[in-house]
Amino acid sequence: MASPPAPVSASPASSAQRKRGSTETIGLYAVQCCECHKWRTVPTKEEFETLRENFTDDPWVCTKRLDCSCKDPGDIEYDSSRIWVIDKPNIPKPPPKTDRLAVMRGDLSKLDIYYVMPNGKRARCTGDVQKFLDANPDYKDRISVESFSFATPKIVEETVSHSSAWKAGKAKKQDKTNASSSKN
Ligand SMILES: [Zn+2]
Hints:
Blueprint (H helix, E strand, L loop, with lengths): L7 E5 L2 H5 L6 E7 L6 E4 L2 H9 L31 E3 L11 E6 L6 E6 L5 E2 L2 H10 L18 E2 L8 H20 L1
Antiparallel strand pairs: 1-2, 1-4, 2-3, 4-8, 5-6, 6-7
């Protein structure tokens, strides 16, 4: 792919890191400069969430970083040596005391979005958030359902398609499709 399709990206951690029990599977955050199209790493998840929140109104350029300009070489190159997932722009920053997790499925087919709520429970959809607020009305002035987005990042297929886990998952899906079409 000559030019990565979308503004913000994050690549999942290695499977070894995942096995160590960390639930968050994103290992590195990066943003693409809208002028020179180089990729710059973003040091923390919090910073990434801040720039993602305003991405359309406030597109990212190299000069936003101290002592950095479009003339400097990129921090990382886009290639298939790591898995890339492209996040959606303009996702609201998670409300205080919540954490938004992107968790890669074992067959690398999809990421699931969860929020860890202030009580430690996970919310997987807006309905779960509503349930939390109904059970904990004290939070209603601090947390609104609109601040939650379950939009999933898109996995760049060419960066996973060489993985055996991905191939196995794909083959399984194919079998299912074949089985259901032969039934008809
Ligand atoms: Zn630039």
